[in-house]
Amino acid sequence: MARVEVLLPQWGMGMSEGTITTWLKSVGDAVTEDEALAEVEAEKVEETLEAPATGTLVELLVPEGETVEVRTPVAVIETA
């Protein structure tokens, strides 16, 4: 099994951080690539964080309401 870190992406050139407003999946949930994982507020715009791989969500590293910098690992997916 491989572990894939889910990083906070940079959706715009001026974006330096984002806030996880809502996790749409929980630890232990199966996810598929490009499936919505969380809602993120960045630069006062809501964006949807998508899964970079198919597998099982095994860790949420950032709680709802926390602001982190772009490229910060926010979750971990374990692939088969």
TrEMBL record:
InterPro entries noted in UniProt: 2-oxoacid_DH_E2_comp, Biotin_lipoyl, Single_hybrid_motif
Pfam families assigned to the protein according to its UniProt record, in alphabetical order: Biotin_lipoyl
Co-factor(s): (R)-lipoate
GO MF: acetyltransferase activity; lipoic acid binding
Entry GO CC: cytoplasm
Family annotation (CDD domains): lipoyl_domain
Name of the protein in its database record: Biotin attachment protein
Lineage: Bacteria, Bacillati, Actinomycetota, Actinomycetes, Kineosporiales
